[in-house]
Amino acid sequence: GINAEYGEFFQTFQHYFKQINLSMRLIGLTGGIASGKSSVGKVLQEEGVVVISCDAAAKQVVEQGCPGYEKVVKKFGRKILLPNGEIDRQKLGAVVFSNRENREILNRCIHPEIAKVVRRRLIWEFFKGTQLVVLDIPLLFESCNIRPYMHSVVLVYCTPEQQKERLMDRNDFTEEAANARINSQWSIDEKRGMADVVIDNTGLFLDTEAATKALVVELKKGIIPIRNILLLIMASIVGFILYNY
To answer: Could you point out which of 4, 36, 107, 150 has its C-alpha 20 to 30 Å from the C-alpha of 228?
Structure first.
């Protein structure tokens, strides 16, 4: 699962928010592999919601010249590289998804770097005044130290059979390779019982899209625009000055 760097970061960040008496509503978005989580994330972005993807961050930190790249190549050797020097994700996947120890080694290499990327983005959004942020975290439930810092958790659900079919169609995986990736995570049915909101992606994507748009409306309820908060503070200061002087 995700190691301690994530949890320690969120704890520090939440404490910082409390100190300045502001809060950013953090929503966790998760699901099983090939459940449609990324597609739901795109709809959220189209609806104006800030989405920070740990999958995207994971790809970023293993690009050539990045610290994560150097760590991964040092641990697994140049046999996982393409001729141009980039990491061959299929070769690396074959190594880590067939062996739990290798998977944990990879996690130790890249998770601290992913946490740094997420931290920078969250701090940037905070200073922009963003009050609703969705964190797309594939292994959210596998990491017990992250869940407490989420306002709520949204799970994108499809059946395990659909996961396997989509992986085989989308990635041209064999059944064995698809099962290895699915089994490297907690069961999606187990995760379903732990989520606050479940978006059913077993049918037409139009239905998934409609459910996601309805979710955005719910997530934004009770959020006061930062501009209104600042105007309220300014009005209070002016009122105090006029009353006392």
So the answer is: 150
